[in-house]
Amino acid sequence: MTTDSPVISCRNAWKLFGPNPRQYLKSMPAGHGYEDIRADGYIAGVKDVSVEVAKGEMLVIMGLSGSGKSTLVRCFSRLHDITGGTIEVEGQDIMALPEKELIELRRSKMGMVFQSFGLLPHRTVLENVAFPLEMRGQDRHARRERALEVIKLVGLEGREEYFPRELSGGQQQRVGIARSLAIEPDIWFLDEPFSALDPLIRREMQDEFLRLQAMLGKTIVFITHDFDEALRLADRIAIMKDGAIEQCDTPDQIVMDPQTEYVRKFTEDVDKAHVVHASVLAKPVNGHAVEGDPIAGDRTIHQIARQLVSDPREHLPVAGKDGKIMGIMARQEALEVLLGDSANG
Amino acid sequence: MADVATNATRTSLSMRQPGATRDPVLVALLLAAIILCAAKPVLPDFLVRLPEAWIPPLAQWLDAFFDVITGDMQEGRFGLIYITRWFAEGPLDFLLGVTANLLEGKYRWPYMSDPIPWAAVAGLAAVIGYYLGGWKLSLLAGGTFVWTAFMGQWELTMQTLSVLLVAAPLGFFVGLVIGIAAWKYKWFDNAIKPILAVMQTLPFYTYLLPAVIFFKVGPTAGAIATTIYATPPMILMTTVGLKKVSPEIVEAGKMSGATRWQMLTKVFIPSARTEILVGVNQVIMLCLAMVVLTAFIGMPGLGGKLLAMMNSLKLGRSFEIGITIVLVAITLDRLSKAWVRKLPEHHPKDTPFYIRYKYTVLSVVVFAGLYLLAQPIEILNEVGRRQSLSMGREIDGVFEAFLNLDSVQAITGTIRYVLNVWVLIPFRDALLWIPTSAFILLVVAFAYGVGGKKPAIYAAIFFSIVAFSGWWDRSVITLYSVLSAMAISMLIGIPIGILAARSEKWSERMLLACDTAQTFPSFIYLLPAIMLFGITDTTVVLSIVIFTMVPLTRYTIEGLRSVPAEMTEAADMAGCSRWQKLTSVQLPLAMPTMAVGFNQGIMFAFFMVIIAAFIGTQDLGQELQRTLAGTDLGKNFVLGINVSLMALTFDMAILSWANRRKKALGLD
Questions:
Q1: Residue A180 forms contact with B (CB below 8 Å)
Q2: Quick one: closest CA in B to A157, which residue?
Q3: Which of B8, B66, B495, B657 could staple B588 via S-S, CB 3.0–4.6 A?
């Protein structure tokens, strides 16, 4: 398989809840909205969603509670059976998989972390982490070794014999993370993993998570209702409302160029300077003079604020990752991002 | 809030006096009943009592049905009896033989020459008690067995426990499997629900006779009846527990790649541990209650001895056996409840195995040590008749003397006289006087006024079946005992509950007392009534009163305590006096919970009235007990179903009211 083909590919996926969803979806007139469907006695958990997740990418799904983000991610792992459309994981249509192969897929490729941890209360940390390994029939010795390895990775060494109720929330979620990593999954689903935690611990866990991701480089689908968290972590963000994806884009684009009113409202309060990178504002040179030292494209406007204010140049050159000039950025435009719309008067 | 309170008062009043509401259906039903009563002299006979000729031979039909499913296969019948008899004589008999050999020393496999010494059993119980609940439980568990041995009741107790040791695990497994099936398959759940409801109200005599017929007389029949009786709550708790497993745990299991079997055994069942263990507790307690009652089919053991002693009015010795039964009940209850609460604990790394498994090691050491010690030291092995500390004979004398005191006789005699002549007999005669048709209408009116339409329809069907069963008068007498006992019980139990609920300390004490009392096998409740009133009609009613007071008091306290604090505070701030607060805020809000207690009381009463039959009543219980001597399976079932249908009528009406009320008050 080439690296270009997406790991998860979801086309026109529907998930309806109600008495007879399949039948209803077939007979439903095109263009039926969420409220129309509800009036017919069905709930659209996932509504005509098409999205792809590339290898090694971190897609963050965002939305208010009830927007269908958890449902969507459960469709990816077939914890929910979709009502219509197709979902392919590594090129396999998962709805076509027989139970045995589905179990095999989960045993070898997928890991998932849950909001309230989903730890088995009667098992120790070690036994919880080793659980997926036990399910696939690994012998006691091998699974103990692997479990200890992941426990160490998440920083819970010395707590192997504890029971979940003896741990704090943050520690419990570390166990959840360790368990999901035990089988070395290619695809990692995280369903609001940090929202049950205190703000301070949440921050710490996010850092921890970024550290792990830098080390492991997995394909990740991450759910959150916290926009700051999404901006911190995401390669791309998909914003959901009423079961449908409103916009799926990079954080910069979402902030700079909201496609719908809903997304605009969502991003209204965000401090854009923290999100937008210089590279996004860079425009083709087009005959403007390129003078002086370039700015690194992967820095946010906030990070170059000082320079922006004091630099005399009207147009600043921006350098890409390879160090070559990729374009120029209008200083005025950057200042507007930095200071907000009030700069316009 | 005041609005809620007054509203609740109004409804609760309307429950006590159905006539107060102006529902036309209710008025019509009551009017019809009154007219039928008033017109009794001129009514056609069939409205007063159904003529014999109209009564279908239900018992014969049932007998024919049982013949078909049990009978000989050569005659083209189903031959169920061969299967059940095989089970009884094969595996079940073997298991009972093993426990009987170990505990009583019967000559069966594994052919241990002597039963296990009492000291070893007591020691083991003490260690288990310590493991589950510390010193107090250790003392209780060990002490119970020491008491038993020194009272000279060791063999009796072991006869009872050896059946329990087989019946309880059997009930556990059967309940677990059926519970899992009911959780997995909706249709199965729907199918068994009504059966379970009937089973839980069926009088225990109805369990006994089929057990005897299908599974041979003796311990096997006792074990089977016990198991069947104890299984329903296990089924229920299993289903409840499995349904409650958090969806994230389920999903975590699925994402770990668990197969269906792995999901069940490694995710669902361990996660439902608490509910399943609560089920185990109930199985054990019901098994004990039932094993004691198997005395009625001639099973030896504590129950058998108690029955014999009570029959010959040896009160002192009955009293001692009663204490033993109560101690065993409390011990089993506390141990199994402690097990529910017991959570696993971790040991630091590199703990040596004898510390990691210290309780296992300790059990083995104590058991083996006392076993060996008992070989040379005879008193640890068996407490002989001479050495026993039983004072039964002496207490017999004391009781006799006490009851013969003129003042005591005067008091009990007066109570008996007043109750009998002024209350019970007039009430019974009045109920018997009411024409059948009017009676059914009254019951339907009650069910309609309290529970609504659906319970009313069931009430009509159920009581019509009772009328057509041909046992109307006896059913009415049964109902009379239940109702009069409930009335007396409410007069005593509810005020006690209200008083206790006034202070935190007393509510806790009362609740503990009630909880403890509820673990006693029902048979025990006959004892104090018989002691005071001998063998008379009043005794039956009073034993029911004592038995039903427990849930009434308990739920009154719980209902009052569950009233949200801000409501009572609001009442205080509104300037309510204590009495006003009680009647217009606390009681209305507590009513739904109290109704549950009332309902439980009625169920208990139906249960007890049948047991009390052996004192000599004229109700269904008496007839039921007679069937035990023969093979009248059909009649036995008809009688049992009658009791069950009457109980279910009340159950549906009251619970439906309680649930609606709870919803209306937002207490859910």
A1: yes
A2: B349
A3: B8
